[in-house]
Amino acid sequence: MKLGVLCSGGDSPGMNAAIRGAVLRGVDVHGFEMVGFMDGWRGFHEDDWIQLDRLAVRGLSPLGGVILGTSRVAPFTGRRGDEIDLTEFRERFASYGLDGLLLIGGNGTQNVAGMLSEAGIPVIGLPKTIDNDLAGTDYTFGFDTAVSIAAEAIDRLRTTGESHRRCMVLEVMGRDAGWIALHAGMAGGAQVMLLPEYPETLEQVCDWVTSVRDRGRSSLVVVAEGFRLVGVDRAVTREGLDGFGRPRLGGIAEVLAPLIEEVAGVETRATVLGHVQRGGSPTAFDRVLAARTGTAAADAALNGEWGALAALRGDRIEMVPFAEITDRLKEVPEERYAAARLNFG
């Protein structure tokens, strides 16, 4: 059996460990041939690939980034009216002599995997995204690392904030779901966590900040990049579009900080954590999760369990059909946010 491995979308700590897990199980145990396409779908379209074997994946587990590269290049190049034309895709798939694809990615990538599966192309998904917003799995690899980095930033901001009696606003990633903001905020003891799913009024945010000041403390506010104040119809954006053609988010902390200072009368500073959350070595949790996911994907290919995501459910890796996750976003449940909100301020 010959498998192709491809990464798509944003990078996420643990991707190298997932590739290593899949290759060691697939090549060394099952006797597969495996190739990796460079820079996502670009490599697939342009015949740019490398052979994957034990030597190619040696020492990968602790490394951040991804040896294959990743991109937001579109998987399909042809259309027939309103329908996607897979003729060229099928020809390329056949030209490589592939029996199946292992696709490492988040929501967009797994939606593509579902489309390919429906079209009869053998695909297995591996769930990576720092946002943890992929349906069907309890956790995605990369999330724990991003939370750990954000929690460390909170620890550092707290000491300087307390020294100057300032309110510190930390912006973390999270376009549509606030998992990083929630978990990092809880880990770091932040007094306020603002998520895309649950808009709040400026007055409420300032009430929480002044409550903390009145106790003789300095506030730490964690805000996801996709958060919107009540009455604001869209998230704060920077210039340009991202790889999916969406407005590029970022800067809500820089908008929120002067508003808090003006209304609450508390000196406030903003920090945008940005791509630091994606970089560096993955945590031990993410390394193990990614490796288990890669191993499970190779086993699933051997057993013909195509058309599914290698998902973490409880402490087990289970194969979840794409039909159960396609076009679904895993948001922070209302009860989770409500429980945390009771302790704001």
UniProtKB/TrEMBL annotation:
What's one GO BP annotation on this UniProt entry? fructose 6-phosphate metabolic process
Q: Which PROSITE patterns match?
A: PHOSPHOFRUCTOKINASE (PS00433)
Enumerate the Gene3D superfamilies for this protein. 3.40.50.450, Phosphofructokinase domain
**For substrate, which residues are the binding ones?**
T129, I130, D131, R166, M173, G174, R175, E225, R269, H275, V276, Q277, R278
What reaction does this enzyme carry out catalytically? beta-D-fructose 6-phosphate + ATP = beta-D-fructose 1,6-bisphosphate + ADP + H(+)
Q: Which GO terms describe its cellular component?
A: 6-phosphofructokinase complex
**Active-site residues, record numbering mapped to chain:** D131
Q: What is its EC number?
A: 2.7.1.11
Q: Does the keyword Metal-binding apply?
A: yes
Provide the site residues for: Important for substrate specificity.
Answer: G108
Compartments reported by the entry: Cytoplasm
Binding-site residues for Mg(2+), renumbered to this chain: N107
Listed InterPro entries: ATP_PFK, ATP_PFK_prok-type, Phosphofructokinase_CS, Phosphofructokinase_dom, Phosphofructokinase_III, PKF_sf
Q: Which Pfam families match?
A: PFK (PF00365)
Q: Where does ATP bind?
A: G10, R72, V73, G106, N107, G108, T109
Q: Which residues form a coiled coil?
A: none
Metabolic or biological pathway: Carbohydrate degradation; glycolysis; D-glyceraldehyde 3-phosphate and glycerone phosphate from D-glucose: step 3/4
Q: What does this protein need as cofactor?
A: Mg(2+)
The terms under GO molecular function for this entry are: 6-phosphofructokinase activity; AMP binding; ATP binding; diphosphate-fructose-6-phosphate 1-phosphotransferase activity; fructose-6-phosphate binding; identical protein binding; metal ion binding; monosaccharide binding
Q: Which key words are in the record?
A: ATP-binding, Cytoplasm, Glycolysis, Kinase, Magnesium, Metal-binding, Nucleotide-binding, Transferase
What is the stated purpose of this protein? Catalyzes the phosphorylation of D-fructose 6-phosphate to fructose 1,6-bisphosphate by ATP, the first committing step of glycolysis.
Family classification = Belongs to the phosphofructokinase type A (PFKA) family. Mixed-substrate PFK group III subfamily.
User: Assembly and partners?
Assistant: Homodimer or homotetramer.
The name of this protein is: ATP-dependent 6-phosphofructokinase
Q: What is the protein's species of origin?
A: Leucobacter viscericola
Query: Which gene produces this protein?
Result: pfkA
